[in-house]
Each structure stands twice: as C-alpha cells, then as structure tokens.
C-alpha cells in the first residue's frame, strides 16, 4: 500500500518535470561545492535537425536562465573528435559533462575518463550501455516507438489497406534508442504480422541514421518488394523524408503512409502535404531543462532523486524519462504553440494554404 503511494508520488514528480533535492551528498556542502561549468557534446548535425535547432537552443536557454557557464560542441559524427572534445572539456575544467554518445564503446571511454577526473556525468537522450553516467535524461523511448506503430496502423486503416506490406527503416544499430524505438513499434505491429493482418516487408537499420543512405536503402527495399510496400515505419523524420523522396520518384507519395519522429520542420511539412502519416514530438525544452538542473545540482554536491531508474545490465541508472506525443495533421499546431518550431519556418509560401487548412493561424 505504502509502496503504491510512493510510486504515484514519483510519477507525479515526473509529469510535472520536477526533481527533488535530497540534500548534500557529502555532508560538507561548502567543501564539495564547485562553480558549475557544463560541457555538452552533441552527436552530429545531419541525422536529425534537432541537435542544432532544438537541443543547442534549449540547453543554452536553460544554462543562461540558471546563470551557469557552459560549452556546447558538436562531434559531427566523428568518434575521434568526440573523444578530443571530451578531453578538452575536462582539461578546461567542466564540472559536469553531458554526452549524446555516437556508440556505447566511445561513450563509455569518455564517461569513465570524466569520472576518474571527478567530473559529474549525464547521458543525455541516449543511454551509454555499460557506461558510468550518474544520470540518464531522455524520453520514454519505447513509448516513442509504440506511438509510431499505432500511428502507422491508424493511417493504414484510414487508407483502407488490406493486408498491407510494411517495411522498416530502423535507426542506427549503435544507438540504444533505436533498439527501444523498435521494441515499441514491434509491440504494436508484430501481433498484426503474426495474425496475418499485415505482411512484414523488408527491414533495414540505417547506419548512423544517415539520411542519404536511407534513401538508397529504401529504394532497394522497394525494388526487392517489386514496388509493393504499403506502409513505411521510418524511425525518424530524416529517414521518413528519405523514403518519401523515393516514393515521390515512383509517384507513390501520399498513397503509402510513412512515420517519423522529432517534429522537424521538414517532417511537419511532409505531414501537412499528406506525404507523411505522423511524427513524434519530444519537448526538448523539458529534456534540456531537466538535464541542466541535474548537472548544476551535481556541481553543487547535491544529489537529486529522479524517482525512477533504468536498468543497464546490473546497474540501476537514476533517470528522467519524459513523455512523447504523437502528431498528425490536426495537431501540428500544438508543436508550433509549444515554441518548438515557428509558424514562419513551417508555413512558407508553398505550405501557407495547408497551414490554414490545418488551423495554424
Ligand atoms: C534521438 C532521435 C534522433 C536520432 C537521430 C536518437 O537517439 O532520440 O530524436 O532523431 O537519435 O539523431
């Protein structure tokens, strides 16, 4: 009974994005307190627009609001650069390091080094498997995948598809999130394949979420399936847009529902145009704020209770997991209202009428 109440309290904390301070870890706050300086390493600027347009912006916003020093850099999908940036940040005196790993191996090396130098560590968005981060801040990524599976299924039903062939464009095989997204969409779609309600088409993982490679991969899928693909589970908007570009070449866009993730400008425009079925909106502002709060607390020698943990092998990693939201044509406006993208970005001349039709004013 008591356990139940505690669980509810923890969920309540999470939904309001709140974190409680558990007080000083060491019992000697003055001695352990450091002036916070936070280093952030973003993964690249091509696998998704979010890292530069949302994460950098909202992290800066959070750090500035808190009045802390920071250094945000982007490894541009280069693992050697990732490690060099980390070394420079550690030498430069960061008190906390937040990373979005490029793979768990290099991520772990960076986290372990930071830890050995007394630098606090946070896995931002992607969990480093076998790593040592003190916190993990992300979204409920299995739910992200579930929303994608449900979205594809909803759009296929709306199109009146009978025994549709569904292909998969999974995310990077080295990104733990891609594994979680797939577990989520499989939980919705696999029972339909098993029941012969849907037919499983080709499935590929896209290395490093490379959008250009995704187009080549999808073109090959379409050839293999002799043009008979009725729905595409694409793990993010970039991969979805790659599939849409090939569908356009074959005059199949708008007929074949495609999913996505990240509520990117391009993804939202594809939804308004009817070429993309849905996307998943993740309020990065909240993710950035939660991570920033934790990094600052760690620098002050405080320990926060996130009310939740995630398993990494035998390790229970204290985590903040935020709630994702499915976006269809009728609620594209919610993403704009939330300040994630602007009306000006989405509703360019070519999309003005579509925006008005979707109630974006
Ligand atoms: C993130 C997604 C992003 C993808 C590619 C994932 O780890 O959670 O939001 O689209 O990486 O950058």
Overall pLDDT level: 92
Distance between the termini: 49 Å
Number of helices: 14
Total number of strands: 14
Q: What is the succession of H and E elements?
A: HEHEHEHEHEEHEHEHEHHEHEEEEHHH
Q: In angstroms, what is the radius of gyration? A: 21 Å
Which ions and ligands are bound to the chains? Answer: beta-D-glucopyranose
Q: What is the helical fraction, as a range of percent?
A: 40-55%
Largest sheet: 7 strands, mixed
Helix/strand-derived class? alpha/beta
Q: Strand-residue fraction?
A: 15-25%
Which regions are unreliable across 5 or more consecutive residues at pLDDT < 50? 1-18, 21-31
Record the strand order, biggest sheet. Answer: 3-2-4-5-6-13-12
Shape: globular
Write up what this structure looks like.
The chain has 361 residues and is an alpha/beta fold. It is built from 14 helices and 14 strands. The strands form four sheets. A seven-stranded mixed β-sheet has the order 3-2-4-5-6-13-12, sandwiched between helices. Strands 8-7-9 form a three-stranded parallel β-sheet, sandwiched between helices. The longest helix has 19 residues, at 176-194. The radius of gyration is 21 Å and the shape is globular. Residues 1-18 and 21-31 have low confidence and may be disordered. Beta-D-glucopyranose (BGC) binds next to loops.
In short:
This protein has about 350 residues and is of the alpha/beta class. About 45% of the residues lie in helices and about 20% in strands.
What's the topology here?
Blueprint: H1 2-15, E1 20-24, H2 29-32, E2 37-42, H3 50-66, E3 69-74, H4 79-91, E4 96-99, H5 104-116, E5 120-124, E6 135-139, H6 141-158, E7 165-170, H7 176-194, E8 199-205, H8 211-224, E9 231-234, H9 237-249, H10 265-272, E10 279-281, H11 284-299, E11 302-305, E12 309-312, E13 315-322, E14 325-327, H12 332-337, H13 343-346, H14 352-357
Parallel strand pairs: 2-3, 2-4, 4-5, 5-6, 6-13, 7-8, 7-9
Antiparallel strand pairs: 1-11, 10-14, 12-13
Helix pairs in contact: 3-11, 4-5, 6-7, 8-9
